[in-house]
Design goal:
With 530 residues, this protein is an alpha/beta fold. The chain has 4 domains: 204 residues, Muramoyl-pentapeptide Carboxypeptidase, domain 2; 132 residues, P-loop containing nucleotide triphosphate hydrolases (Rossmann fold), CATH 3.40.50; 79 residues, Helicase, Ruva Protein, domain 3, CATH 1.10.8; 58 residues, Arc Repressor Mutant, subunit A (Orthogonal Bundle). The strands form 3 sheets. The protein has a 5-stranded antiparallel beta sheet, covered by helices on one side. Helix 4 runs antiparallel to helix 6 and helix 17 packs across helix 18. The chain starts with 6 loop residues before the first strand and ends with a helix. Bound molecules: adenosine-5'-triphosphate. GO terms for molecular function: ATP binding; sequence-specific DNA binding. One of its GO terms (biological process) is regulation of DNA-templated transcription. InterPro entries: AAA_lid_NorR, Homeodomain-like_sf, HTH_Fis, NO_sig/Golgi_transp_ligand-bd, P-loop_NTPase, Sigma_54_int, V4R, XylR_N. Keywords: ATP-binding, Nucleotide-binding, Transcription, Transcription regulation. This is Regulatory protein, Fis family.
Length: 530
Amino acid sequence: MSEEGPFVAAGDDDALRLPDSADLLKHLRFSPKDGRITLGDERMVLVHVGALAALRRELIAALGVARARAVLTRMGYVSGQRDGEHARRVRGTASYYDLFAAGPQLHALEGMVAVRPLEVQFDIERGHFRGEFAWRSSAEVEAHLDSEGRAAEPVCWNLIGYASGFTTVFMGRPIVFREVACRACGARHCRIVGRPLGDGPPPPEFEFLATHPPPRPPGDAATPPPRDDGPVIGCATGLRAAWALVERVAGAELPVLLEGEPGVGKRHLARAVHDRSRRAAGPFVVVRAGALDRAGLDDALARARGGSLLVADLDRLSPDLQDRLLHAFDLGDHDLRWLASTRVDLRRGGLVRDELVQRLGAFPIWLPPLRERREDIPLLLGRFLDQQARALGRRLGGVTEAANNALLDHDYPGNVRELWGRVARAAVLVGDDEPVDRGHLFGGDEAPPARLELAPAGVLQPIRPATDPAAPGVDDLIDALLDRRAGIEALEQALIRGAVTRAGGNLAAAARLLGLTRPQLAYRFRKTDG
Ligand SMILES: Nc1ncnc2c1ncn2[C@@H]1O[C@H](COP(=O)(O)OP(=O)(O)OP(=O)(O)O)[C@@H](O)[C@H]1O
């Protein structure tokens, strides 16, 4: 992309049309069963404009207008930055303008405002940017009118923060927007203008930019990958919280209780505690409580000397062995670090004696199930595929989009262990250099998950597995077309017209939908028209 030169367009110029947003919509998912909405790997929420109005009122009353404005600007800036990173992931190979247009399009998709570009000029290499946009239906104008009534000064603070954060990520240097007309002050619509932040101090609401490191420009290498460099892979908040606790407690001698569903990684994390402890050079001994007898327990206590002992499934320890373990713990003459794991909440149910829970559960760490941290699925998948390729001594050809979607949509009752098993099975089934497909992972018999996506018409619909040309839905379509005796020419024309309409008349975007170059499409389109 870095060969693209300066971009200049204004007024009714065709170049300012926003491209088709189907690629952005595809990443917005609703999962009511899990109480989650995600945009790519970001968790989102639907917030009432009335609630924003209440927040605004409180902020202004508590902090005054200037501070409230700065807080809301900062909040919008963070959203804009996050969407800027997301846009790079989704449209990283599109033209610079289409990449930039993802900002206005995501802002509209998130229900904040409808954006019409009036003038856009940028030259990424020289750091030049000038943009002017008209805003319709600003949610913030509504919130402000609701909480404060008509305004003397522009009020779209959060939206201005968003536009600035997004464009700053896009340009790789601080760009600051100003609202030059606002509907809350009586203008017909809001209008904003953006320019690079000069050498002078930033406007007061953008004070944070003075200390904020500038992001890298879009031509640079991709955004840094989330955490997959250590033994415990994951970037989700729940996992990071658990990991932070591991790092804090590892150096202490305190017993640690790992809690979570089967296969979430309790043993894996217990190992990390051991490896980071003063006993790392000693043994790490694991016993399954359900299969343990007196001799087994005594033997494990002896073997773990100088290292750590993990009693897995503490909830399944027989009452007799619970007494014995308690006794061993209280004696304190076993030179070892106590670790335990449980699949059930030990504070409820009376499965384990309170005295034992109080001792071994002194420092609990809970690991969320994989379906509540779907952001980690791509990372784990990448790591497991690499591991399998190495173990089998084979080259694996990545995963298809259908497989990827199926993996993201699946609920994983067996958690990370289940994902690992599916990847291991697929790696054996798939041919050399062939991408892993849905069937390799799921064998085609999985129940569809209760997740929803936004259809282009704006309604939520159940996610259907992505089809490839060989999928059954396509066979039905072909049958129906053949029944109607639709000729190839007529089909081609219908397909081209459909793509051009869906892309809002933008031939470059329509060409992408059809897998053609723009000149190829222009040629066929002329043929269709003539
Ligand atoms: N965050 C992670 N990063 C890398 N691998 C992981 C992670 N979490 C789990 N695994 C892998 O997933 C598998 C299951 O993890 P583990 O055995 O730790 O689960 P568990 O919660 O102890 O399960 P159980 O309750 O059945 O004992 C293991 O192969 C482990 O290495």
